[in-house]
């Protein structure tokens, strides 16, 4: 009987251990650094003790935000949001790299165990015991790797908590900015009142000086100069600077919201990948008023959307009541003001199977739209430039500019001096955003004047379209009329 030596290279063929597949990509060119502890327990050595874990980074950033969540200026608040946004991006990148490293470790351990299993059948004696001991160590490493994945899942939950905290901080910042702006307006009104009082006092002084001629003008002149100085401090230029800062802050908040949604979608994909759940479609697009959502096939085997039955719903965030959105049967949907604060859901029926997709959260309002509508409410009649794209469900060829008048008692559509349609608010009137029609739907609305006349109007911007809907519903509500979209019996032009 031939004795097998401990040098495997001299007695085994080169194909005894199967080679690792060329498709496998490793994060590093060396095997992970492990060492044996007490009771032969396998311990993983840390490469760089200075690198903080994801949990420590989340705790540190949260503590810093809590310490500084007080009354901040607009510039300080903007700087803080930039740091929070960078931290969220860093955490997302770290989670992605850890997931890739975890997958590489699983592949490496499986290849190593298969190689040792193949080797165990080719050796005997003490060598076989060594191989079995190595297999046991590989299995212990696999158990430890599974435990680390559990820790990674917990760290993902911490990342989600941080995203929610940033969202709450953004809402607090919006309230703070509104308070500062109101304070500035109060200062301006106070300065105007002071100037008016001084002017009235000057007029009274002139009348008294004509009678007596002994009134001293120096004190009044000093008051006038002081009043003018106060007025100059609150000129519109300073308000414009604040508006520019607010606009920059709104852009940062929008970017933060997009990053948060992408992070939540990435976490959902990772969870589905861990549970081996495949999905044929996914919902893409910005979940905010002024944008649009669309159904995106994420599998080559997914049926064509043109052959599927599609229906959109809005779900209340409190009671979870599902409300059908009549006419929303396309693969694209543009949220309207009714959808703000609610979760959108779409059901896809293909080949007898139903797929339900839901937004990651409630639809966010458009930045500055509320204050813009409040300013328009003070006017008796508001005009919007529009183009008629459909009339009574038939495409309108002319692209001439029309003017839509939204008044406190009625709505009117004019072309030059010609009135195309005019109607007082009533229960027969319907008004909502166009449901379908691609990305152009964000700038279009559907207006049913009465049972025999309807239009699809295209506005200059998404903000004008949403403002017109909100303004008309506000004026109609003041007349005890509730304007809504079409019911199930009334077809909607798309």
Automatic annotation (TrEMBL):
Chain ranges of the Stomatal closure-related actin-binding protein PH domain: 381-488
Assigned keywords, A-Z: Coiled coil
Cross-referenced Pfam families: SCAB-ABD (PF16711), SCAB-Ig (PF16709), SCAB-PH (PF17684), SCAB_CC (PF16712)
InterPro entries assigned: SCAB, SCAB-ABD, SCAB-Ig, SCAB-PH, SCAB_CC
Domain Stomatal closure-related actin-binding protein Ig positions: 281-378
Molecular function as annotated in GO: actin binding
Limits of the Stomatal closure-related actin-binding protein coiled-coil domain: 100-267
Gene Ontology biological process terms in this record: actin filament organization; regulation of stomatal movement
Coiled coil: 128-259
Domain Stomatal closure-related actin-binding protein actin-binding: 54-96
Keyword Nucleotide-binding: no
Protein name: Stomatal closure-related actin-binding protein PH domain-containing protein
């Amino acid at each position: 009987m031939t004795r097998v030596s401990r040098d495997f290279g001299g007695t085994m063929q080169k194909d005894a251990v199967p080679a690792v597949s060329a498709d496998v990509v490793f994060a590093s060119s060396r095997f992970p650094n492990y060492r044996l502890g007490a009771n032969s327990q396998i311990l993983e050595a840390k490469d760089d003790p200075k690198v903080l874990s994801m949990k420590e980074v989340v705790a540190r950033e949260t503590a810093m935000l809590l310490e500084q969540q007080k009354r901040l200026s607009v510039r300080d608040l903007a700087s803080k949001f930039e740091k929070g946004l960078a931290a969220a991006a860093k955490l997302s990148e770290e989670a992605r790299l850890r997931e890739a490293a975890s997958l590489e470790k699983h592949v490496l351990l499986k290849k190593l165990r298969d190689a040792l299993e193949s080797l165990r059948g080719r050796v005997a004696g003490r060598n076989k015991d060594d191989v079995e001991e190595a297999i046991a160590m590989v299995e212990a490493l696999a158990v430890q790797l599974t435990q680390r994945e559990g820790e990674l899942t917990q760290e993902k939950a911490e990342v989600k908590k941080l995203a929610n905290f940033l969202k709450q901080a953004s809402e607090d910042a919006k309230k703070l900015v509104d308070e500062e702006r109101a304070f500035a307006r109060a200062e301006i009104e106070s300065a105007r009142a002071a100037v008016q009082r001084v002017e009235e006092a000057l007029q009274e002084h002139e009348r008294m000086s004509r009678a007596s001629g002994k009134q001293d003008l120096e004190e009044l002149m000093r008051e006038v100069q002081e009043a003018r100085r106060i007025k100059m401090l609150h000129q519109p230029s300073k308000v414009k600077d604040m508006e520019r800062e607010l606009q920059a802050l709104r852009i940062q908040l929008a970017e933060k919201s997009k990053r948060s949604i992408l992070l939540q979608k990435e976490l959902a994909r990772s969870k589905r990948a861990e549970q081996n759940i495949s999905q044929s479609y996914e919902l893409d697009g910005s979940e905010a008023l002024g944008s649009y959502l669309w159904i995106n096939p994420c599998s080559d085997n997914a049926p064509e959307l043109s052959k599927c039955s599609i229906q959109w719903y809005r779900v209340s965030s409190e009671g979870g009541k599902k409300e059908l959105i009549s006419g929303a049967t396309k693969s694209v949907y543009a949220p309207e003001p009714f959808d703000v604060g609610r979760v959108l859901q779409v059901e896809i029926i293909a080949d007898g199977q139903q797929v339900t997709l839901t937004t990651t959260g409630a639809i966010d309002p458009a930045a500055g739209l509320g204050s813009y509508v409040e300013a328009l409410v003070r006017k008796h009649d508001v005009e919007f430039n529009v183009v008629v794209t459909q009339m009574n469900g038939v495409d309108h060829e002319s692209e001439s500019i029309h003017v839509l008048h939204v008044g406190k008692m009625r709505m009117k559509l004019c072309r030059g001096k010609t009135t195309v349609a005019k109607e007082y608010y009533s229960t027969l009137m319907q008004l909502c955003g166009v449901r379908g029609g691609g990305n152009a739907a964000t700038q279009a609305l559907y207006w049913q004047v009465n049972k025999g006349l309807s239009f699809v109007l295209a506005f200059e911007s998404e903000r004008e379209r949403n403002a017109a809907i909100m303004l008309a519903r506000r004026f109609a509500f003041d007349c005890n009329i509730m304007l809504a979209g079409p019911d199930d019996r009334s077809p909607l032009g798309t």
